[in-house]
Design a protein that fits this description.
The protein is mainly alpha-helical. It contains 10 helices and 5 strands; from the N terminus they run ββαααααβααααβαβ. The strands form 2 sheets. Strands 1-2-5 form a 3-stranded antiparallel sheet, with no helix packed on it. Strands 3-4 form a two-stranded antiparallel ribbon. A hairpin with a 2-residue loop joins β1 and β2.
């Protein structure tokens, strides 16, 4: 494999001494060699392939399963796992035919931060339950929840990975090479809102009255996992954060997912991922982490605010192995 190139999921092959490498360019006698997998000229094609594959697969799943409108979560269960694979399908198409890259990265201690959203929402809900009759705390269920929380989070990670490969593995790095953190967040939040809200309006997921709180939560969550992704240079913290949210917060902190095992019961306008307690907690966490991110230099030298660009000396940590490259004159 030629030096300076990367594969869909691979690491850049060294073309210069360590410390002098660039992610997509290698100087040589014939000029500068540009890695086609992160060539900015191909970003439009990558995005068309990504969103085209996502939409076609998403719609195809609905046509095959034919869920009944306003059928509630019983209808959602017919297709939700398949629909969660749509972002990965789009990412693979963009990776192969773009060509592009999917950044997986390596697990790190940032995985521990993935549990902060669920932990913060639990504490906020506990405080509200102690001062208001709108939420009831069932202390007898806490032991079972603690025993199963990690198991549920890891189990949900299997399904959530289908989304996160597309969102944080492919789309987020592509956006950040061109755009600021805030602009990338705004675009990602809008896309994620459309991806989820359509299911709500169809009567399969959540409820329409919870859309305002869900929207606030979504913004906070995209900010938070954006920071985790940038600091860890991997998708794994966002996978675990997404999974623990789905497994714990969305279930009202149930140890089994069943209503009778919920730690909290009460108004759906307050609880769950469509409730305001989760929305407020997630927004506080997202803004707080973003504020810290902007004020703290990254260890790899990439800007936490501005576009990361196409010549990062740490790009070999993001991707692995390679296809064709093209040369440009000096």
């Amino acid at each position: 494999m030629p030096p300076g190139e990367t594969g869909c999921l691979g690491r850049v092959v060294d073309a210069q001494p360590r410390g002098q490498q660039m992610a997509h360019t290698v100087s040589g006698p014939a000029g500068q060699m540009i890695n086609t997998r992160i060539d900015p000229a191909l970003d439009k094609r990558r995005l068309v392939l990504f969103f085209g594959g996502l939409i076609v697969f998403y719609v195809g799943v609905l046509l095959v399963t034919q869920p009944q409108l306003n059928g509630g979560e019983s209808e959602l269960e017919k297709f939700v796992i398949a629909v969660m694979l749509a972002p990965t399908v789009g990412a693979i198409l963009a990776c192969v035919f773009g060509p592009g890259v999917i950044r997986f990265g390596m697990p790190s201690w940032w995985l521990l931060a993935a549990f902060l959203p669920a932990a913060l929402v639990f504490l906020i809900t506990l405080v509200v339950a102690s001062v208001s009759d709108a939420v009831t705390f069932h202390s007898d269920q806490v032991g079972a929840l603690l025993a199963m929380a990690m198991v549920q989070s890891l189990l949900f990670s299997i399904f959530v990975l289908g989304e996160e490969i597309g969102w944080r593995g492919f789309l987020w790095p592509l956006l950040r090479r061109r755009l600021t953190f805030i602009a990338s967040t705004a675009i990602m939040a809008g896309i994620w809102w459309i991806y989820h809200a359509g299911l709500t309006f169809a009567g399969w997921y959540g409820f329409n009255g919870g859309i305002p709180a869900f929207s606030v939560m979504l913004l906070g969550f995209v900010l938070f996992v954006g920071v985790l992704t940038e600091r860890s240079r991997s998708i794994w913290p966002s996978v675990l954060a997404h999974a623990s949210w789905n497994g714990l917060v969305a279930s009202y902190f149930s140890s089994s997912g069943d209503e009778e095992d919920r730690v909290f019961t009460g108004s759906r306008y307050l609880l769950g991922e469509f409730g305001w307690l989760g929305a407020v907690g997630m927004l506080i966490l997202g803004i707080g982490f973003t504020w810290w991110h902007f004020r703290t230099p990254t260890k790899d030298g990439l800007s936490p605010k501005d576009p990361t660009g196409y010549e990062s000396p740490v790009m070999w940590l993001w991707f692995r192995n390679t296809p064709k490259s093209r040369r440009t004159a000096r």
